[in-house]
Amino acid sequence: xxxxxxxxxxxxxxxxxxVTVSAGTAFKIGFFGAFGAAVAWILxxxxxxxxxxxLAAAGLGFAGDLFH
Length: 68
Fold this sequence. Notes:
With about 70 residues, this protein is mainly alpha-helical. It has a domain at about 20-60. The protein contains three helices and no strands. The chain has helices spanning about 5-10, 25-55, 65. The longest helix is centred in the middle third of the chain and has 35 residues, at about 25-55. The protein starts with a helix and ends with a helix. Keywords: Membrane, Transmembrane, Transmembrane helix.
């Protein structure tokens, strides 16, 4: 005979706590979230630019085929 989920002790659910976020905090979260995404996008773009420049210098890029 197998034990059920509740008998095994898996039926515990903790009480949920209520979190109140003010308008200023919500604005800060949104602003810094967007700022972080923009910085990450710029850093990834710079990395791809460097990789592309290295590949182009080595003659492995596709840019040379576009202009010939």
